[in-house]
Amino acid sequence: MSLTESIRQPIEQELKTFKQFFENSLKTDNPLLAEINGYIIENSGKKLRPILTFLSAGNFGKINDNVYYAALSMELLHNASLIHDDVVDDTHERRGRSSVNARWSNKVAVLTGDYMLSTALICGAKTNKVAILKSIANIGMELADGELLQLNNMQKTNISEDEYFKIIQKKTALLFATCTEIGAIAAEASPEMQKIMFDFGENLGICFQIKDDIFDYYNDIEIGKPTGNDLQDGKVTLPLIYALQNGDETERAKVITIIQNKDFTAANIDYIMQYARQSGGVSYAESKIAEYKQKAMDLLNQLPMSDYKKSLEFCLEYTSARKH
C-alpha cells in the first residue's frame, strides 16, 4: 500500500460521499458557470485539505454532516485561492491543463473565484458554528495579506528568513491549520484539542510549503513538473535566502545582479539553482522541514492512538518525503 493510500484508508467511504457533496455545491443554472465548475471538478487535486479535516475530526468522534460542510468549505476556499492566484501570477497552466484565466479570461476567473469563496462561507454557515465561520473568514483575509506581502518582496534579495516564514504562514500554513482546527471543532473536541490540531496543521503546512519551494531548485526531469517558476517570478524562497546569506561572495553578487535585472534566461535560472544547492540552501531547507515535522509529531503524540492519528502521521511522512 502506498503512503497516499495509507493516508486515505480510514476515510475512504467519507471521501466518496464528499465527492458528491463537492459536486452538488457547484451545481448552477448559469451555463457559463456550470461549464467552468465542471472543468474545475474534472481537474481537482488530491483533496488534501478535506482529508485533513476528516482525519482531524475522526480523532474526536463521529464524522457528521458538520464535518462534511467544514471540509467542503476548505476545498472550495482552496480552489478559489488557486483561481485568484493564477490571475495574480499570470499563470496559464494548472495541474497540467489550462488555468481558468487562460481558458476563459481574467474577468471570468476572478468572478468564479469570488463565487467559490462565497459558497465556502455558505457551507461554513451550514455548520451553525460561529467559530468555524470566523476561521474561514480569517483565512480569506490572511491569504490576501500574504499575497500582498509576497508581491512587495518580489525581486528583493535581502528578504529575511522571518519574512519568508511570515509569508508561508499566511499563504499556506494557515489553510492547513484551519482544516485540522475546524475538523476538531465540528467533532466537538475540547478547546485544548482544537488548539493542538490547529498547531499541528500549521507545522504540517510549513513543511509542505518548504518542500514545494525546494522543488523549484531542481531540474524538471528530477521533479516531474515545471521548476524554476518562482525564480522566474523573482520570488526568493528559503533555499536561496540561506545561500545568499552564506554562499560565495562572487557568486552571490552575480545572483543578485540577475535578480535585480530580471535577467531570467534559462542559463541564469540554472545558475541560481546550482548556487542555492551548492551553497547549502537546499540542505538547510530540508533541516527546517525536519524541525517542523518534529514539532508536528510532538503535538500528535498528545492524542490517543487511532487509525485517524496514524493517518495524520502518514501525512507528515508524505509531506516530507514526496518527490513532486
Task: Give the helix tally.
Answer: 17
| Order of helix and strand elements from N to C terminus | HHHHHEEHHHHHHHHHHHH
Determine Rg (CA atoms, Å): 20 Å
Report mean pLDDT, rounded to a whole number. Answer: 89
- Strand content range: under 5%
Stretches where pLDDT is under 50 for at least 5 consecutive residues are 221-225
Question: What composes the largest sheet?
Answer: 2 strands, antiparallel
Silhouette: globular
**How would you write the strand order of the largest sheet?**
1-2
The CA-CA distance between the termini, in Å, is 19 Å
Share of helix, binned:
over 70%
Extended strand count? 2
- What would you call the structural class? mainly alpha
Summary, kept brief:
By secondary structure, the chain is mostly helical.
How would you describe this protein?
The protein is mainly alpha-helical. Helix content is 75%, strand content 1%. The chain is built from 17 helices and 2 strands. It has helices spanning 3-8, 12-25, 31-42, 48-58, 65-88, 100-103, 106-125, 130-152, 161-186, 191-215, 220-223, 229-232, 238-246, 249-260, 266-278, 281-300, 307-321, and strands at 93-94, 97-98. A two-stranded antiparallel ribbon has the order 1-2. Strand 1 and strand 2 (97-98) form a beta hairpin. The chain starts with a helix and ends with a helix. The model is unreliable at 221-225 (pLDDT under 50).
